[in-house]
Each structure stands twice: as C-alpha cells, then as structure tokens.
Amino acid sequence: MTRSASPSLPAARTTGRTAPGPDAPVAGIWRGVYRRLTGDAMIQILVIAVLLIGWETVTRLGLVHPFLLPRLSAVLERIFNNMLAGKVFTDLGLTLYRAATGFLIGTAIAIPLGVLMARNTAVRWFFDPLISIGFPMPKISFLPIFILWFGIFDTSKIVMIAFSCFFPVVSATYSGTLGVDKWVIWSARSFGATPNQVLREVVLPMALPQILTGIQIAVPVGLITTVVTEMLMGGPGIGGSMIAAGRFADSVGVFAGIVEIALLGAVVVKGVERLRAYLLRWHHEARH
C-alpha cells in the first residue's frame, strides 16, 4: 500500500508545481510587453520605420526635388529648433486646446440628445430629420456662417469643431441606446427600478461601447477640423503655421507641421483607445 504525501510537505512539492515567487508579477508584466512588441505594435513600428527610411533615402539620392519633398533630417532639425524656441509647444497647445474644447462641447450636447431621441418619440421626431440631413454634409462649409456669427477669433473655430464632432457622437449614442435589449429593461423594471435607475444602471452601460465608438470617430474628426480651420483662418496654431510657411515657399516648415500633427494625432488616438479599454474593462470585448 502506498503512503500518502505528508501534510507537512509544501503545496508546491505535493502538486509538482513551483510556487510563485515575489518576482512573478514583474515577469508577467515583461511577458505582456514582449507579446506587444512582437505583435501588432512591432509591425506598426516597422512599417513607419520603413516609410521614414525610404523618405530620407529618396531625398538624399536626389530622386525628388527638395522643394517638393525636403529631407526628413531637415524636417526633424526644424522641429528641434522650433522646440528650443518654444514655438512647437505654443502651436500644439493652441491646437489641442481648440480641439479638446470643441470636442467636449459637442460631446456634452450630443450624448444627452442621443439618449433623449432614443427614449422620447417627440424629440426623435424633431431632431432625426435635422441630423439625417446634417450628418453627410461637409461641415467645413458652415465656417463662413460661424465667422459671421462669432467673429474671426477662437470662438468661431471652437464652434466649428464642436459642430463637426456632434454628429458622429449623437448618431452613435442614438443607435446604442435604441439597441439596448428591451427584455433587460423590462426585467429591471420588474425588480422595482425607477426610470432614472434604469437609465443610469442599465441603458447607459449597455450603450457605452457604441457611444465610445462614436467618440473614437469624433476625436480625429475634431483634430482634422481644427487644423483645416486654422489653415483657413490663419493665426497661431499648427494649421496657421503650416499655411504661413506655405506662403513663404518654406516646404520644410510645411512638412514639419505635418509631422507634428501626425505625432499629436497618434498620441490622442492611442489615449482614447486606452480610455475605452479602461471604461469597458467589465465588457466582453476586454477579454479579446
């Protein structure tokens, strides 16, 4: 007859496994970093690196006229000099301020209106035709009207950005709220939940993934609108600096602005993706 393992033996010996040491959480973090570096993130980095190397190589070989496509090294040198002078931070700060302010105003109006449209027939009857007509329209065509109404300074730019961000968010909010399963709402009501509790604890959480999708669409739309508005109206900001450089045939300055807005856009979009992952950490999409 075989003897059973002594109760005094460690659990690691009786199960044949090694007990996790104090460095296990650190090892888990490094494994996550390794998986990211060898996955999609590494592919994206390699694609961007190949593009930048190709840019520098083509210009150094003289295959493209420097005025049409300046060297990447010259563009980076211009950005570095502008950073030392503080110009980059001023332009980026103003552009980001306008984009963020307009986005927040548009989102603050769009989300409540989208919920009301999904839950109130009269509100939906009034606003649905307006949104259906306004969504596909080029929003920048309203800029002369906003300049006429709000002047030539930041107010008209921010209103233009808010107007552009409004439509994708209100449409996503309306669709997400309307698509909430009615059985879940009826179940919550049967347990005595008030209308406010149903909205706060059932409808909004279930509609949140689609609302965040609308926000993810509105963020780059807001950045694009900001730069275009600055280019059309002039003044400080990335768009204004780019159009000023173009007027003086300064192609290096134009491409410096393109690189700066590309970096800003990448940081902002990745930040929104992180925010979505945090807010939906309870959702099934977080497990994929």
UniProtKB/TrEMBL annotation:
- Give the subcellular location: Cell membrane
**UniProt cross-references to Pfam families, sorted A to Z:** BPD_transp_1
Q: Which InterPro entries match?
A: MetI-like (IPR000515), MetI-like_sf (IPR035906)
Using the record's annotation, list all stretches that form the ABC transmembrane type-1 domain.
92-276
Q: Which domain of life is it from?
A: Bacteria
**Membrane topology reported for the UniProt record:** Multi-pass membrane protein
Region annotated Disordered sits at 1-20
Q: What is its main location?
A: membrane
Q: Which residues are listed as membrane-spanning?
A: 41-63, 96-118, 130-152, 158-181, 202-228, 248-269
**What are the recorded Gene Ontology BP terms?**
transmembrane transport
Keywords attached to this Swiss-Prot or TrEMBL record, sorted alphabetically, are: Cell membrane, Membrane, Transmembrane, Transmembrane helix, Transport
Q: Which Gene3D superfamilies match?
A: MetI-like
Q: What are the annotated GO cellular component locations?
A: plasma membrane
By sequence similarity, the record places it as follows: Belongs to the binding-protein-dependent transport system permease family.
Question: In its UniProt entry, what is this protein called?
Answer: NitT/TauT family transport system permease protein
Q: Which organism is it from?
A: Aquabacter spiritensis
